[in-house]
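For homework, think about our next protein:
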Amino acid sequence: MNNEIPSVWLWVSGVFFLLGIVFFVAGVAVLYKLLRLVEDMKPKLESLTEKVDALAVKLEKVADRVDETMVSVKHSVDGVGGKAQGILGSVESLTTGVTSRLEGLTPIIAGVMAAYKIFLTFRAKRGHTKTPSRAIALPAKKKKS
């Protein structure tokens, strides 16, 4: 029985371990570079955080002002709405009064217009003048030859 390890196996193992060492050293170098990058970015991140905090405070102040303005606008709109409702109520009562007065005058106006038509008809029958409505509304007919 031969207990000897084949030489090919030893070469493959050696290359594998050598590549492992190379990749480990490369990984340590990359981690070192990332650590340096994070350390360089830390002051920038801190200043950015301060700016964001200051901006948040300003936004809160603006939001408070907007809330105050909205409350003021709501009060103004409510006041204008109340005045508009009062004006509409006055207009409605005025139109109701005028309508009721005109309802009483409508039969009188219709009677006067009917009497005027009758008067024009009698006047036209007596031969004084032509009926104005017929003279205006219908042109004279031409006789057929």
